[in-house]
Structure formats: structure tokens, C-alpha cells
Specification:
Layout (H helix, E strand, L loop, with lengths): L2 E5 L8 H16 L3 E4 L5 H12 L4 E6 H4 L10 E5 L2 H11 L2 E4 L4 H15 L7 E4 L6 H12 L5 H4 L2 E4 L2 H10 L15
């Protein structure tokens, strides 16, 4: 695995642990010679993970839509900063350049990015691994909801199990590197259609 895309907040959140987790992830990526792709912002957890990865020796590519370059304050110190036109271009390029994905704490944008790559994997569009870095239990409620979705028959267990979860950055990166995609069956059986 050469490049991991990290989805995370342009806000630092309220807990100090989120910042610690972002910096730790950036350092772990560099330690394992993995480059970072992310949303291109200089603020919040986005800026923290990028700065830590850069300081520890990783190449960092940021991808940001022109409309957000001022709001998220585009990071000018990156190895490669790409300004795109739309959010769709941003997400497509992030996916194209990455071998796997990690979602750290973040808001609606982070969740949307995560669930897009999860859906693409479910549909067989890609076979790249993805995980939740569950810093300070941030994703506990979401994990419970995903399990509930399985129990209620809306998410197949094999698809729920594609989402790798850890509260430790190094362990999560190792789990992503060891991931082997499940052979995908037809998404809906003939009796479901």
C-alpha cells in the first residue's frame, strides 16, 4: 500500500484526543512509507494530519475545490496541491490516487466521503480497503447503527465486515494493508428483485 486517503474534519472537534489522533496517523503513515491524499485544507484535523505526515517525511497530496479553497484555507505547503472545480472531481481524484481509505472524526462531509467509498465497494466498483479510526470512541454510535442495519436486513453482514475499525492508527494501517477483498456475489439475488 503506497497511498492512503484520509477523510476528516476541517474542524478540530472538542476533544484534545482528536488532534492527537490526527498527528499520530500522519506519523504512522510516514513511518510505513505511505503517502497521504486528503482534502487539501490547512485547518482542523485535515491540517493536523497533513502537517504531521509532511514533518515525518511523507508526500502529501491535497485536493480541494476552488469554492472551498478559501473556507478550508488551502494548504500551500503540500507536496502537491490540486485545485478542482467540483466536489465530485475532488472525490473521484482522491479515490483514483489512493490504495485505501481512513475516516477520522469529522462531520457530514467526512461521513459522505466514507459512505461513498463503502457503497462503491459494495457495488464492486473498487476493491480498496477502508476503515474507521475510532479516536476517543467517536464512531461508537455509527458502529452500533451499522450493526443495527445488519440486524434489520438492510446491510449484508459481509458488507458490514468490509469496514475495518480500530482506535489505534498503526493497527488500522496494518489491517488495511492486510485486507483481502471478499469475492463479490451479485448484489441483489433474483428473489430480491
Amino acid at each position: 500500500m503506497q497511498t492512503i486517503c484520509v477523510f476528516c474534519g476541517s474542524s478540530p472537534g472538542v476533544k484534545h484526543e482528536y488532534a492527537v489522533g490526527a498527528r499520530e496517523l500522519g506519523c504512522v503513515l510516514a513511518k510505513k512509507n505511505i503517502n497521504l491524499v486528503y482534502g487539501g485544507g490547512r485547518v482542523g484535523l485535515m491540517g493536523m494530519v497533513a502537517d504531521a505526515a509532511l514533518a515525518a517525511g511523507s508526500k502529501v497530496t491535497g485536493i480541494i475545490p476552488r469554492s472551498l479553497a478559501d473556507k478550508e484555507i488551502a494548504h500551500q505547503g503540500l507536496t502537491d496541491l490540486r485545485i478542482v472545480t467540483t466536489m465530485h472531481e475532488r472525490k473521484a481524484m482522491m479515490s483514483e490516487l489512493s490504495d485505501g481509505f481512513i475516516a477520522m472524526p469529522g462531520g457530514f462531509g467526512t461521513l459522505e466521503e466514507l459512505f461513498e467509498v463503502v457503497t462503491w465497494a459494495q457495488l464492486g466498483i473498487h476493491t480498496k480497503p477502508f476503515g474507521l479510526l475510532n479516536v476517543a470512541g467517536y464512531y461508537d454510535g455509527l458502529i452500533s447503527f451499522l450493526d443495527h442495519s445488519v440486524e434489520q436486513g438492510f446491510v449484508p453482514l459481509r458488507h458490514r465486515e468490509m469496514i475495518i475499525v480500530s482506535d489505534d492508527a498503526e493497527e488500522l494501517v496494518e489491517l488495511l494493508a492486510a485486507y483481502r477483498p471478499i469475492p463479490e456475489e451479485k448484489w441483489l439475488s433474483s428473489r430480491q428483485t
